[in-house]
Amino acid sequence: MKHSSNNNDKRSILITGCSSGIGLEIARGLRKRAWRVFATARRMQDVERLSREGLESLPLDVTDSNSIQSAVAGVLERTGGGLDALFNNAGYGQPGAVEDLSRAVLRAQFETNLFGAHELACAVLPIMRRQGYGRIIQHSSVLGVVALPYRGAYNASKFALEGLTDTLRQELKGSGIHVCLLETGPVRSRFRANALLMFQRHIDRERSAHRETYHALERRFASSTDDPFTRDPQAVLRKLVHALESPRPKPRYCITFPSHLLSTLRRALPTRALDTFLLFGTAWERR
C-alpha cells in the first residue's frame, strides 16, 4: 500500500471512538506496526489521556458535522495533506423492543452508527481520490447480517451501514480506494456497559408490554460474565491489519465464531428457519 504521511513517511490512519475498548487497542496495535495513528474521542479528558499515552489525538464527535470537518482539517494539517486510511469504529448499541423505540432514540442511533460514519468517509474521499489510493474500513457487526430481538435500533443501523458500504465499494471500483466491512460479534469492550446505560435512559421498562423480558435483559447487561465466544480486541486488530495492508483486501471480514456461523446460516437457511434458530438461541434473555 502506498502512503502519504510526512512523519518519517509512515502510513497514516484516522480512527474514531478510541476512548476505550476496541478503538483504543486498535490505536495501540497499529502504532506498534509503525502506522501514524490519529486517535480520536468525543471528550477532551479522553483526548488528553490518549495524548499522554503518546498517541496523536484529536477531539471528534461523529454526530457533529463541525467536529468532523475540524478533525479532518487537523489531521491534514499534521500530515501535509494526505491520509492513507480511515477506520470508522465509533458506535454504540441501543437495546429495546421496536415498539418502544421513539423516533428520537432511533435517530440518535443512526446519527452515530451510520450518518457520522458516512459523513466522515465523504470528508476523506476527496483526499484519497487525489492520492489515487486509500482504505476505508467500516466497523459493522454480525447484527448487520442477521437481526436479533430487542436489538432493533442497532440491527437497523448496521444493516444500513452494510448497504451503504457495499454501494460505496462498487462506486469506487478502479479508483485505488478499497472499502471493507469488519463484522464483529462479542468482543471485550465497554459495549455492553454502554448499552445498559442507553437502555435505562431511553426505554420505559415498567410500562412496556415487554417488561418481563426487560428485567432479564437488564440483568444480562449488568452481568460481568462474558459470552463463551467473546474475543479480545486483538482478534479485531488482526483482521483490520489485513484489510489495511493486503494488496487485495476482502470486502468483508467475519470476526468471532458467531459472526462466521450466523453469516453462513443467513445464506443457507430459509427466513422462518433462521428466525427459529435465532429466537431459540436468545431464549435465555426472556427467562
Automatic annotation (TrEMBL):
Domain of life: Bacteria
SUPFAM superfamilies: NAD(P)-binding Rossmann-fold domains
InterPro entries: NAD(P)-bd_dom_sf, Sc_DH/Rdtase_CS, SDR_fam, SDR_oxidoreductase
GO molecular function: oxidoreductase activity
Pfam families in alphabetical order: adh_short
Keyword terms of this UniProt record: Oxidoreductase
Protein family according to the UniProt entry: Belongs to the short-chain dehydrogenases/reductases (SDR) family.
PANTHER family the record matches: SHORT CHAIN DEHYDROGENASE, SHORT-CHAIN DEHYDROGENASE_REDUCTASE FAMILY PROTEIN
Protein name: Oxidoreductase, short-chain dehydrogenase/reductase family protein
Organism: Nitrococcus mobilis Nb-231
Lineage of origin: Bacteria, Pseudomonadati, Pseudomonadota, Gammaproteobacteria, Chromatiales
